[in-house]
Fold this protein.
Amino acid sequence: MVGMCRCCLRYGLVVLVMGILWKLAALALGGVILPYPEDALFALVQAMGTQLFWEHFLVSGYRAVTAMILAWGVAFPLGLIMGSVTGVDAVLAPFVFLTYPVPKIVLLPIFLLLLGLGDTSKIAMIALILGYQILVTTRDGVRSIHPKYFDSVRSLGGTNMDVLREVLLPASLPHGFTALRLGTGVSVAVLFFVESFATTRGLGYMIMDAWGAMDYLTMFSGILGMSIMGAALYEIANILERKACKWMFLRAKE
């Protein structure tokens, strides 16, 4: 309960500071291009009272969450295997590091052609970009484990399963969740981009549609909606990390 209050207080202070900066910028621009924060907030509250806003929000949330689950479910085990099995890493690492710098977002037209204009292509695009980050971070995290930890378990008669349970997972899970938390911002950014094309639902579509109609208050309602979604995804990943990696937070409780 105390932690939740501190989290709300922290977010409240950030919102207050950003609101002041926003107000100053809006005053400097005359409130035409950039609306005043109180007007944008009022528009958001009004939008949140409509069914259409929540349809956009839930569609975007479904795409982002599904992509994050897919990316983590594939990339984390693969990173774990690459980091711990030298032969697999020798074969797959060149493919990963040669394709990692390639901007995957340029593949969106190909994804749309292959997977169609529905949710599948958009989810796959987000999952691909996020998956690389999780894969590389997890793989490097496993490779940084000192050999003495493996030797300690094996010297006590531990099996491969014991090594996985006692060494590999405790060492790699924090890296995987860190990549997931950092990837929430990437997911929302890519979500906005993929929803700008060939769709009529989602916050990204809502923003671009309002921008085209010069309805700036609705546009900022969509932007603020995406900001709320990004913060919520970050906190969900944070809670999952605290549940899965309890040993990391024991010192903070002391």
